[in-house]
């Protein structure tokens, strides 16, 4: 009962709501505002993007759209993408009142370059130089596919603060000084409160939301319950049967928006295991998967948007990248076609059992860790889909570590897994097909190509896409990549990764939507700041 | 004593001693001294064929310990146990079984000494089996039950202990002991847990067995009257030591040791008139038995003894013949003729 | 050495040999079935065992089979409704019974065997063997079972029911072992053990044939308790997704139901039955345990009967310290009760 | 005194065994923290981060098991439990001190209330057999068999909601900072009511039953009859004679329960998203966070041991028979 | 003639109700006079304890008093029926008027309280106005009376030897100076030396304080020595009642005779002991007629059919003798209410 209580101003609740309650299902948090640390609370809850800002913002929903300048007023990449010139915006100030300069930007990249532990995207930095308000970064390899990771995913930190920090990898950055519109108000293990800057130094108009209250829930269930109850107004979490459990609780205000992005989930097939080394068999399997069922039953009709294009690219985000020959070509469940294809390849359907040309029944083990219930449901559906062409599937639920190790070592038959994601489809296809990532069976392939897919054609094309200096070359390479992916079926794409979120319009409006897809919808990504800046009180 | 009697000796204890170590207390941790319960010290006794020796004494005086030592259920601290004159020490296994087949023990509490989950048949069968009777057991079982007057045997064989009365249970316990065809029977208060009206039956049975099977019996009791009734010879124990011995009639009628006298005077006696002032009331002193961990020096009875002399607290009394009847002795300085004269 | 032992110390059968006709022997052993609680418990347990055996055959559907009736409320076709995949919840419960019972009983058997081996041996042998076994028991007792189970299970890949039962059994024997040790210690001092030693029996025979039969009730009670614990543990492990069991058990059902926010979508039929099934099984086992407890401790048994029925049909409540006085109106010498009635002096002398 | 020394030796030995076990168990767990972290952020963390994380966690250089074991002991004696991986670079001790108070307060307080309430009801039920208290037994039996998490989830479904007094999750209102003031404390209490209530419901019956049975057993002791014969008031007989003796065996049960507070709160915390140690342990497990696992296990074991020690002391105080001279 | 203090009339006590009930005490009539020691003997299970606890309503479940009166005669006031007292009345009555020394002293003392507490809480309950100090003083006095050093006041029961505990119980029984003290086998757990010491002390106290004693044991020789009058129970009934010396010299009932001839005598000539054949009856299935007849050496025709009535046999004139045996038929039954 002391006057100086940090909670004092929470009491006058009669005022109209000027805060936003953001939730994430990420468990207990410890105070760590280090924007570079993957394990920090700032990262887990995403508030680092309210404190620190990137150089540019890009829209993952429309990855082909031009980037939005943010702390950089201009970004000029060299044709070979081995260097870039960043012009730093004038007038931005750190929350301690110091101006934000090109020195700060250069220092940030130098910091990352000098600390492998901070270099989360493994960017091969070269020289970093400053000339006036222009920073020039050079790289050892072309960075076309990484351009947004560098520009839009790197939080810029103040040099005058960070140069005093002894070990930037382990420092918890107790008093974060950033350029964003919010400053840290309080931290507890259950959540974080940010309040809007009062020093007048933000370079844009300040957001209407005066306070951001982040809460970390123990898991998906509690987060989903909190959303349904209105205890959270914005989150990114899988909500089973979202219509019933969330939207219907307040149909006027409870909304979901989950646009797909360039990152997908699919069934990886181990192409070294007989008879799945047979392209025809994989094609047939691909033809019978009921993606619509999976979308509705496993993904609650929203979470992983159904992949329709045969190229495995999601609708919307992928549209701009689909090769001409696959434009408009979509997946359809075609059991008869699959049967015919198999028959032509020498398979015999013996009653309900498919026998391979050698006469052995085709059986497949599908595996994923038990707690991933959407994958598990997906596998159950795939299992019944395969049964229609006589493939007997069994679902195994190894624990996550075992599964991880098995998938990486190639010790599996088929497994649902995700791909990397990025601003181009490159990351998707690279994860599935890159021969450069290929490791012998038994050796862990940590970054991709778990199915041990061998295609020199795809490997060359992927390399070309990353390194070429012209758009035309890149388009050609991408078309080749897609052709291999569609014809060889190294993986059966099922759903898109999403940048979605669940939110409530009860107190705040102005959220991105299909009508105005100005950004993604996850509260933990850089664009969350764009959303917060656009929010307006509901009753005004 | 004649030599023919010696031929009859079955079991003999010579200087039998048992100390139970007590776990050390903290303060003794650093001293060398080890404390122990001096449960039995320097006990001599002889069991003869067809003879009953009674061992009387108050509770905690070490009677049961003597019995268990004789049954070799406890290892002894000192002294010797002689079976037919040969020193025996057994540790278990076959050796123990051979010993057990000659010396058997009956426990105080017939309600506790039979396993409630097994039938009478089981108990007796085990006793026979363990002691090498592998043939047809049925006649042997009948024979055993007949011997302890549980007739007809069929009625009892398949009963559980709880279905029998205390006296019947004690008979089963005796039958079990007989199953080993022992020469010596150690009966540790075999009737003290039994009802007054059934006690007699069991005692009579024991006497009968002694006579018919020519058994040597050690009869342990705290009821000195029953020792008079049942035993040929009576030994009195106090605080782990023998204080008096002799034939039963002499010991009970003309007790020599002050403790025996106290014991006998304390026994309820209907012939004593009500309201009489107890003759012993004044000089009884402290009625508590002494600690056996630090037993009194000299004669262990001296702190309670109405006739204690200075010597009693320093010198351990030796067996002294009383002379009123052959074989009557007491460990009391009162009877030291040299000192008296 | 032991941490103060449980109440069971005080209810050892037949301690006061005169007062109580020791442990009930064989012929009366099943008397405890007459105990209403035990009989009810056993009947329910019997039903569960039956379901465990025939459940998979009488289940109307394949519990994993999908159908188009997604998240349907209970109906004639689906007694307990369906899941988000259109699976039949009733079939899942039926089929899941087997795994629950199997794990529960196997873990119970393992833990009981261990506790008997360790507890009875420690109690009978005494000395150094006792000391080291007691320390082992206490160390296991002190280490928290559930977190330990979680860790061990997460080490095991794709653990089968048997393996899970093994883990549960191996981590939950210590309490019973301690109780058994205390019991054995007190039994060991009983004369019949000494007597059979004096007869010349071998040590193992004494333990197996003299001691164990007298411990059956305690062992059984410990067994039943462990089964409850094992069932709850199995279900909890499945619920938090630690066990990656492929088959169905009630924990798996709850795992799916919770993962799909069954209650959030008002699909109570998906969440409630499995929990109730567990609770009823647990209650049945507890009832059996009460039966055993009362059977072991005659005091509890007679205490069960607190009301007696008179011939006239009335009831009399038993109270300790105030023996009821029956009002026998037929009796000529009865006064009005519960009033201190002065009695005419003339009746005396 | 000898008894006390013996107990001390036992506690030291147990502590050593448990701490050693703490060291080895996490090392038995396969998988490594980096992979776990990446899997946790399915698709959100790029595969390239792997190397940087290995460097960060210092997993690129490790000595032999034996030297690790020695280091571990050295660290424990320095009160240093290492750095957590999941919450890198937070020290394990910080995570534990942050979580422990919640666990201790919620579960500790409810365990004590549950014990007191259950014991009280058990005394009543045991003393007044045949009255309405008998009706308590079937109900409590049922509740003690209900899986805790199930009860909690149903309670949330039925009682918590948008307009309900009971929040469905968390330890306090988001936006508040833990502080001893008039805003935070009511909020913390409000948040703890539902978890506390469910814990109470599912745990109280155990105490009722064991206390009732002990009361029944003790009630037929001779000294109770003597107390009645002495004409003491019913209250005095029930409490000072019967309950006082019946309580003794329950004390050791209570100590064990106190000890298991820390380890047994997992489900409460999962279901109610309540801050605390149990859930942190589960997270640590999922993340292969050995230092954190070790730290939490250490806290659990030590608390169990301390609780047992307290029980020993309590027993010594409560039961004069254990206070043997010498 | 002596004044009665406690009259038991037609007392019936059952264990359980209905068909399975065990009739442990049947139609017992007994009068205790002021200042006398009444001995109650009989073999185990004959119903002695049941009778003793039944008259103060202290039987544990399933004991039920099915009939009879227990009439207490206070010094001055009107006599009243103890069985008819309200709970409160009964609580006040207990220990103030009738105190009990139970069979096992260890179990009679609450192990967790000091004996001082257990002594004073009687005073606290019955004389609430008494000061703490005078309570302690009184407790101290009582301990001294039974020969325990007052410095043992603060000992716990387990710190005392069996004999001391028994003496504490006796002291506790006398603390309120009751009219009647019931002693249920107070010395069976003690050895003879201790037994004599305690009983001697008790007799002495009785002479000083003037209370009456009901003394229960199955050791007849002890009873004969210590009591004024002896009642012998068999199968839940009193079969004989007479002054101690009379019973010892000339028991009428064959059961009493049998009991007396079961004890070997320590002094005097060695007499042959006959004992009692057979085993004690099963209360649940009592034989018809005289329940002793199956074991009775002198049973004859009416014994197996009709229950003998307790009363003064016509051929005897001795004071206060009664017996229930067909060998000694009773002319008119004693007063029936
Ligand atoms: N196993 C043991 N360990 C330590 N002390 C023991 C042991 N057994 C007996 N004692 C002690 O030895 C002494 C003699 O005991 P014992 O049982 O032989 O007496 P007793 O004469 O048979 O008594 P009672 O008449 O009560 O049966 C007692 O003080 C007892 O406490
Ligand atoms: N709770 C009970 N239920 C049924 N019968 C009982 C119960 N308690 C005692 N009895 C029976 O009542 C009868 C009388 O018992 P009681 O205790 O009065 O005998 P006693 O004469 O005091 O014997 P003892 O000399 O062994 O103390 C006995 O036959 C006994 O079996
Ligand atoms: Mg003995
Ligand atoms: Mg009695």
UniProtKB/TrEMBL annotation, chain B:
Region (Disordered) location: 263-297
Entry GO MF terms: ATP binding; ATP hydrolysis activity
Entries under NCBIfam families matching the protein: oligo_HPY
Pfam families linked: ABC_tran (PF00005), oligo_HPY (PF08352)
Cited CDD domains: ABC_NikE_OppD_transporters (cd03257)
Record protein name field: Dipeptide/oligopeptide/nickel ABC transporter ATP-binding protein
Domain called ABC transporter: residue spans: 11-264
BP term (GO), one: peptide transport
Keyword terms, alphabetized: ATP-binding, Nucleotide-binding, Transport
From TrEMBL, chain C:
TM stretches of this protein: 38-59, 100-126, 133-156, 215-242, 268-292
Domain ABC transmembrane type-1: start-end pairs: 101-289
Family affiliation: Belongs to the binding-protein-dependent transport system permease family.
Pfam families per the UniProt record, alphabetical: BPD_transp_1, OppC_N
Recorded topology in the membrane: Multi-pass membrane protein
Localization per record: Cell membrane
Keyword Kinase: no
Organism ancestry: Bacteria, Bacillati, Actinomycetota, Actinomycetes, Micromonosporales
Species annotation: Paractinoplanes rishiriensis
PROSITE patterns referenced in this protein's UniProt entry, alphabetically: ABC_TM1 (PS50928)
Keyword Transport applies: yes
GO molecular function: dipeptide transmembrane transporter activity
Protein name: Peptide ABC transporter permease
Domain of life according to the entry: Bacteria
Gene Ontology CC annotation, any one: plasma membrane
Primary residence: membrane
Annotated keywords: Cell membrane, Membrane, Transmembrane, Transmembrane helix, Transport
UniProtKB/TrEMBL annotation, chain D:
One GO CC term on file: plasma membrane
SUPFAM superfamilies: MetI-like (SSF161098)
Membrane topology according to the record: Multi-pass membrane protein
Keywords carried by this UniProt record: Membrane, Transmembrane, Transmembrane helix, Transport
Record-level GO BP terms: transmembrane transport
Residues that span the membrane, as ranges: 9-25, 99-124, 136-160, 188-209, 254-275, 295-318
Gene3D superfamilies to which the protein is assigned, alphabetical: MetI-like
Superkingdom of this protein's organism: Bacteria
Boundaries of every ABC transmembrane type-1 domain copy: 100-311
Subcellular localization, as worded in the UniProt entry: Cell membrane; Membrane
Assigned protein family: Belongs to the binding-protein-dependent transport system permease family.
Record-linked PANTHER family: OLIGOPEPTIDE TRANSPORT SYSTEM PERMEASE PROTEIN
Protein name (record): Peptide ABC transporter permease
From TrEMBL, chain E:
Classification via SMART domains: AAA (SM00382)
UniProt keyword terms in alphabetical order: ATP-binding, Nucleotide-binding, Transport
Coiled-coil ranges from the UniProt annotation: none
Stored PROSITE patterns: ABC_TRANSPORTER_1, ABC_TRANSPORTER_2
One of the record's GO molecular function terms: ATP hydrolysis activity
Segments forming domain ABC transporter: 8-260
Domain of life: Bacteria
Gene3D superfamilies membership: P-loop containing nucleotide triphosphate hydrolases
Gene Ontology terms describing biological process: peptide transport
Family: Belongs to the ABC transporter superfamily.
Entry protein name: Dipeptide/oligopeptide/nickel ABC transporter ATP-binding protein
Organism: Paractinoplanes rishiriensis
